[in-house]
C-alpha cells in the first residue's frame, strides 16, 4: 500500500527535476515556486543565521565516547579509538573528530581555579592527547556544561567561560560539547552565548556544539550561537527512541544549513540495542536529516556489519552534500511507520547536482533502503 505514494512521489520528483534542468536558464526569471513546494527546500536563511567561525559547512563527523563508554573513559581508550579511526579507514571517510564526553575532569577545580583532567584516567593531560590526535590528522573534542556542574557532577563552566575556553584553546582542543545540567534555572539563551564569545576570543577555531536538549527550541535562536544544537533529549539504543527523536528533529528542518545543524544526538549504530536493518534505518535517517554523524560505538571492536553501515559512502555523501538541505519526512506508511520517504534537495538544483555527482540516483538508493525497512519483521 505504501509503495504507491512512494513511487508517485519518486516519479514526480524525477519529472520535476528533469523539467527544472531543461528550463534552468529561464527558471531564474520565473516566479518562485508555490510556497508548499518551496518551504521544505528553503535555503534563503543560509549565512544569515549561522555562527561565523568558518566551521560546520557540512555536518560534523567523528566519534564521541558517551553512548558506549559513559563514564568509563581514559586516555588509552581515546588514543586507541583515534588509532582505529585511521586503521579502519573511517577517518578518510570524514570521521575526524575524536570527542571526549563527560568524566574526563577531576571532581574539583585545582587551587588556581582551573579545570584539571582526572589524574588517574588522563595522567598525561589533554594537551598530550590533542597532540597525539593531531599527529594523525584528527581533531580533539572536549566536554563541559553551561551550569554549576556537568551531568556527572564534575565542575561546570558557567561563570568560568573565559578561563575554561582559554584552557581548552591552550590544550589544542578543536571542539566543545556544552551540556545543560545543573543550570540554576537560567535560560539557555543567556547561558550559551558567553561560551561562544569566550571561544571566539581565544583566537582558536573551535567547533561549538550546544547541548541544551531542545528545551528552549534552540533551532529558533542557536544558529547565531553554535555550530550545532541538540533538538531533543538523549537518544537511547532502541528503535522507539531513535524514531521518536527523528520525528521531533524533523520539525526544525528549515533552520539547518551550512554553519549550523540540528542535532538529534549521537549514533547508536553498533551498540546492540537495534537490529541490523534498524541500524541501517538509523544511519540513513541521520544522514538525510543532515545530523552530525558522531559514532557512539566502540570503533576498536566494531563488527563487519557495523562497519558496513557506518562506512557507506553513498549515505555519507548525502549527509555531506554541500547544499546542506535537511531532508524532511514527506510520507509515512506501514506498521510502526516503517516505510518512510524523506525528501531533500532543491528542485531547482536537484538534477544539476545529480549530474555532477550522481546524487539523485543515490538519494533514490537511500529512499529504497528506507522503504524496505523491516523492523522486527512487522512491516
Ligand atoms: C570570531 O568572530 C568573528 C565575527 O563573527 C569571526 O569573523 C571570527 O572568524 C571568529 N573567530 C574565531 C576564532 O572563531
Automatic annotation (TrEMBL):
<protein>
    <recommendedName>
        <fullName>Alpha-galactosidase</fullName>
        <ecNumber>3.2.1.22</ecNumber>
    </recommendedName>
</protein>
<keyword id="KW-1015">Disulfide bond</keyword>
<keyword id="KW-0732">Signal</keyword>
<dbReference type="InterPro" id="IPR002241">
    <property type="entry name" value="Glyco_hydro_27"/>
</dbReference>
<keyword id="KW-0812">Transmembrane</keyword>
<dbReference type="Pfam" id="PF16499">
    <property type="entry name" value="Melibiase_2"/>
</dbReference>
<dbReference type="InterPro" id="IPR013785">
    <property type="entry name" value="Aldolase_TIM"/>
</dbReference>
<comment type="similarity">
    <text>Belongs to the glycosyl hydrolase 27 family.</text>
</comment>
<keyword id="KW-0326">Glycosidase</keyword>
<keyword id="KW-1133">Transmembrane helix</keyword>
<dbReference type="GO" id="GO:0005975">
    <property type="term" value="P:carbohydrate metabolic process"/>
</dbReference>
<keyword id="KW-0378">Hydrolase</keyword>
<dbReference type="InterPro" id="IPR017853">
    <property type="entry name" value="GH"/>
</dbReference>
<feature type="signal peptide">
    <location>
        <begin position="1"/>
        <end position="20"/>
    </location>
</feature>
<dbReference type="InterPro" id="IPR000111">
    <property type="entry name" value="Glyco_hydro_27/36_CS"/>
</dbReference>
<feature type="transmembrane region" description="Helical">
    <location>
        <begin position="347"/>
        <end position="368"/>
    </location>
</feature>
<dbReference type="GO" id="GO:0004557">
    <property type="term" value="F:alpha-galactosidase activity"/>
</dbReference>
<keyword id="KW-0472">Membrane</keyword>
Amino acid at each position: 500500500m505504501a509503495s504507491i505514494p512512494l513511487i508517485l512521489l519518486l516519479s514526480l520528483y524525477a519529472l520535476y527535476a528533469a523539467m527544472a534542468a531543461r528550463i534552468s536558464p529561464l527558471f531564474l526569471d520565473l516566479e518562485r515556486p508555490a510556497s508548499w513546494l518551496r518551504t521544505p527546500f528553503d535555503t534563503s536563511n543560509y549565512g544569515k543565521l549561522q555562527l561565523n567561525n568558518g566551521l560546520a559547512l557540512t555536518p560534523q563527523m567523528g566519534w564521541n565516547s558517551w553512548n558506549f563508554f559513559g563514564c568509563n573513559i581514559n586516555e588509552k581508550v581515546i588514543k586507541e579509538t583515534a588509532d582505529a579511526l585511521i586503521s579502519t579507514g573511517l577517518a578518510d571517510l570524514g570521521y575526524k573528530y575524536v570527542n571526549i564526553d563527560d568524566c574526563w575532569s577531576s571532581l574539583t577545580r585545582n587551587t588556581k581555579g582551573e579545570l584539571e583532567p582526572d589524574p588517574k584516567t588522563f595522567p598525561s593531560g589533554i594537551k598530550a592527547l590533542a597532540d597525539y590526535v593531531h599527529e594523525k590528522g584528527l581533531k580533539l573534542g572536549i566536554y563541559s556544561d553551561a551550569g554549576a556542574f556537568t551531568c556527572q557532577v564534575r565542575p561546570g563552566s558557567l561563570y568560568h567561560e573565559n578561563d575554561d575556553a582559554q584552557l581548552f584553546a591552550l590544550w589544542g582542543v578543536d571542539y566543545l560539547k556544552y551540556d545543560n545540567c545543573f543550570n540554576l534555572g537560567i535560560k539557555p539563551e543567556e547561558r550559551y552565548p558567553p561560551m561562544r564569545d569566550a571561544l571566539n576570543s581565544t583566537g582558536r577555531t573551535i567547533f561549538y556544539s550546544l547541548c541544551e536538549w531542545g528545551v528552549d527550541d534552540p533551532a529558533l535562536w542557536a544558529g547565531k550561537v553554535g555550530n550545532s544544537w541538540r533538538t531533543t533529549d538523549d537518544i537511547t539504543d532502541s528503535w522507539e527512541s531513535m524514531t521518536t527523536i527523528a520525528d521531533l528533529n524533523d520539525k526544525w528542518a528549515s533552520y539547518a544549513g551550512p554553519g549550523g545543524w540540528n542535532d538529534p544526538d549521537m549514533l547508536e549504530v553498533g551498540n546492540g540495542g537495534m537490529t541490523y536493518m534498524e541500524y541501517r534505518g538509523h544511519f540513513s535517517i541521520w544522514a538525510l536529516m543532515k545530523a552530525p554523524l558522531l559514532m557512539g560505538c566502540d570503533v576498536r571492536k566494531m563488527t563487519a556489519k557495523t562497519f558496513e553501515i557506518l562506512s557507506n559512502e553513498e549515505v555519507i555523501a548525502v549527509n555531506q552534500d554541500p547544499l546542506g538541505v535537511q531532508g524532511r519526512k514527506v510520507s509515512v506508511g506501514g506498521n510502526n511507520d516503517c516505510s518512510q520517504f524523506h525528501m531533500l534537495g532543491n528542485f531547482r538544483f536537484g538534477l544539476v547536482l545529480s549530474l555532477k555527482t550522481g546524487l539523485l540516483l543515490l538519494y533514490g538508493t537511500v529512499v529504497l533502503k528506507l522503504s524496505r525497512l523491516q523492523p522486527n519483521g512487522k512491516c
